[in-house]
Amino acid sequence: MSSTKGFSPPPYPYDRLDELKPLADHHEGGIVDCSIGTPIDPPPSSVLNALALSDSERSYPPSIGTPALRNQIALWVQERLGCEVDPATEVAAAVGTKEFVVGLPHWMKLRNPNRDTVLYPAVSYPSYAMGATLAGCRAVPVPVNNDWSIRLDAVTDEDKERALLLWVNTPGNPGGGLDDLDAAANWGRTHRIPVFSDECYSEFTWDGSPRTILSSGTEGVIAVHSLSKRSNLAGVRVGFYAGDPELVDYLREIRKHAGFMVPGPAQAAAVAALSDQAHVEQQREIYHSRLGRLSTVLADMGVEAPLPQGGFYLWVPAPDGDAWLFVRHLLSEVGLLASPGEFYGPDGAGHVRIAAVQTDDRIALVEQRLAAV
Question: Which is it for the CA torsion 158, 98, 91, 250, positive or negative?
Fold first, then answer.
């Protein structure tokens, strides 16, 4: 009997680190895992109260987001990013933003079946490429410059003709680069390519104020935001997208048919989180301090670890360009687990990413181990 081999998913990147973890077993206190950007600090009590006491568990929640959530999103965009969006036509909720990122090429391919290409930064979050693959599209990386910002001048004419969409990411994961988002928006409008801007780290912009693709208007662009990083709510799975009313209307209608709904309690928690900026300012100070401490640890090991322009990752050149060897060295020497840069594209293979998501006492363990060495 013959059979046809279909799609076989590759190993999930971070699962590949499991076999290395025993290298840190000899360290008292165990491994200090800085491989994944999982928030570890508590969200505000007001957010937890809203999550527990919303009385919204029984009914199906609106897929586009409750009026209260969409109004609060519009207010936050105005107050924090300095832009106007219409909560009725230019805003919608997402079940976290990873599912939005990965599902987007599929929905956009249905909208424009004559195009088949997803453009994304060559060193970036792996879900941009995987979303294209799962939709049966071409995943085409766009080169980045020495500051880890996207180089749109490097996109070929063929890829422009075939492009369904362009992803930009500011501040960038993993490199912390800051793109010129006005230029990206204008590029997209010129070439009639929708631009989707992943801005989930915008609150952790260290070089200047938070940036948004919406600053030059909503035509042809969508900003994607998450509460996972801003408010330590990764487990609640709530985010939003805002921008071009035609695109927002198309996406929220198709997502309604597909059954994508942020749970009601999560929407109530998001309203509470977006209405409170104080906890975000506190979290900014925490991450900036941790980045500095981890950078000093690396410097004391003889490795340059520059602070990023944004985000809470150190993007560290591996000694001799061997990222996997450096990951093993960090585990053996100080019990710290980092991610090899190839997880974020072949162009990142000579770096490692270190997430500043461990508590101060866990980072102190790394400092003590290094001092002992």
Answer: positive
